[in-house]
Write a structure and sequence with these properties.
Blueprint (H helix, E strand, L loop, with lengths): L2 H23 L3 H7 L4 H8 L3 H9 L6 H10 L5
Helix pairs in contact: 1-5, 3-4
């Protein structure tokens, strides 16, 4: 396997993982956050992002990075 083929395979796998994570957290952050009685500000602090980022994620106006998506999934104990 060439380096280019390996890099393509890794990127493809990362994209698949990202899509799975987004299926779990996309537009569910609001409901999950409310169930735990956590404010947007509290979640933002725990995720080390701005409250505006959490608002944008909840509204579906922002797709978080792979790392932030993983952090959110782990925080809400969603399988990744």
């Amino acid at each position: 396997m060439t380096h280019l083929t390996l890099a393509h395979t890794i990127m493809s796998n990362l994209l698949d993982i990202y899509k799975i994570i987004m299926d779990y957290i996309n537009n569910d952050v609001f409901e999950l956050r409310k169930k735990l009685n956590i404010t947007q500000e509290d979640l933002a602090i725990k995720m080390k992002v701005s409250r505006q980022t959490i608002i944008a994620i909840e509204k579906g106006n922002y797709i978080p990075s792979l790392l932030l998506g993983l952090k959110i999934a782990i925080f809400f104990k969603k399988p990744a």
